[in-house]
Amino acid sequence: MQRVNLTPDLTFSRLVYGMWRIGDDADTSPKHVQAKIEACLAQGITTMDQADIYGGYTAEAILGNALKAAPGLRDKLEIVTKCDIVAPVGRHSAARVKYYDTSAAHITASVEASLTDMGTDHVDLLLIHRPDPLIDPDETGPALDALVASGKVRAVGVSNFRPWDFSLLQSSMENNLVTNQIEMSLLATDSFVNGDLAYLQERMVPPMAWSPLGGGRLLDGSKPELLAALKRIGAEHGVDETAVATAWLLRHPATILPVMGTNSLDRITKIADATKVEMDRQTWFELYTLAIGREVA
């Protein structure tokens, strides 16, 4: 599995396992979660993607229980987590409304809660989950720098930021923002042409792609011609259509890291099939054309 450098001393697996819905599985036992992680490791997938809000603020503890039950497993992984969304559920059930909080106090408290829930002394990457309209970069930036200096966070980045949001926060930081996790798939192609991806490429910042299969909508038949093409190309390479859709992202020179989320052990064992697909430019554009519903101008 290809490794991607985010900092001189931090590398991620090119494919990332997403734990957004880990709490939705009927079996959230440490043994079952460990089986998912081991299935990833067998393919060279070492990077796990979390967020404090996942599962109504319960998903990190589900991962933590598995790590506590399997000493030594944490050292084989890189853990990504996110903060700043406050929703009126779980530990924030007293909140009147859903809102974003990038204050230093909230970020620091969120990291402490994440470390406790996951039973670890550090996270490898902390992301600000959503752009905060009330962000004070002169408060948020130094708070993130302080977490890196403390060793509780190895690197920091953002999620769902537009270029100007990224630039504003970076302007008040000593550490570089090392990624932007944005929605990218054959059903979410705007970033390829609206400047989001170009901005990151120019700065040699590897992006992460959430919902690379369109939340499963790629497979529901709503775009029958696109699905048929994915299946045809998959048959040519001995893989399924999900591998082809993921390979479409891997083909891009921006070094996109798709975040693959599934609770099916069988599907987890096949995540790395995407690396078996050699996609030429014409095939990439064939899928892109079918995705946007027209020929490129």
UniProtKB/TrEMBL annotation:
GO molecular function, one term: oxidoreductase activity
InterPro entries referenced in this protein's UniProt entry, alphabetically: AKR, AKR_Detox_Biosynth, Aldo/ket_reductase_CS, NAD(P)_OxRdtase_dom_sf, NADP_OxRdtase_dom
Domain named NADP-dependent oxidoreductase: residues: 14-284
Domain of life, source organism: Bacteria
Gene Ontology annotations for the cellular component aspect, listed alphabetically: cytosol
Family matches, as Pfam families: Aldo_ket_red
Protein name per Swiss-Prot or TrEMBL: Putative oxidoreductase
Source organism (scientific name): Rhizobium rosettiformans
